[in-house]
């Protein structure tokens, strides 16, 4: 069987562990809130209405790509492309190419950062593999200007961080929604994790701490993560309604039999959906 992501790829290890997936999306939640294209996330109203549900929806698509066979992964990518195309058609304008690249770049960045915070430093070949996998996703979606190496990605990522982030009323509202859905106890923990994984530019714009207070707890967790108490602590990070979904993030998922949703009025493409005129 041919896979989009090799069974022994570091990407499967990263995305097959609940701890790293939660840290990836803590960082992504921070950076999404600052992106100058964040208004696109508000256009349908689904993100502010249910940020945790949207997180798990995005995780589901990402894990389909990482763990499915090549055909299944490509169907997942094409379904994502169809959803974006439908939103663009409804709004009557195109999502900027740089905004698509921003999302890919932050997934690369937080896949690397989350694993290194929780596990160990990655090797150069592992970093190259992470970049290659996500850029293949971007190529399937028809996104132009993607890097071909880790070094190219680092340079492009630095430019994006410098040019595409700014606080806005959307930033304030998103964090209001994070607090409302997480509650007064879990919300400070989210901000602490974000401070630990985001780059300095994001940390400064959001007035986050460094997350240094979490390091002793993380060191303890790394030595006890197979014990019941640590499994309980991980599940406690999100409301009870999501605990089964958190546990399901550990290990490769069962084969996906159910069809992917295609938005009303959108045809799921068989290849890249981006218009060549963009």
TrEMBL record:
In what residue span(s) does the ER-bound oxygenase mpaB/mpaB'/Rubber oxygenase catalytic domain sit?
42-212
Q: Name one GO molecular function term.
A: oxidoreductase activity
The identity of this protein, by name, is DUF2236 domain-containing protein
Species name:
Hymenobacter nivis
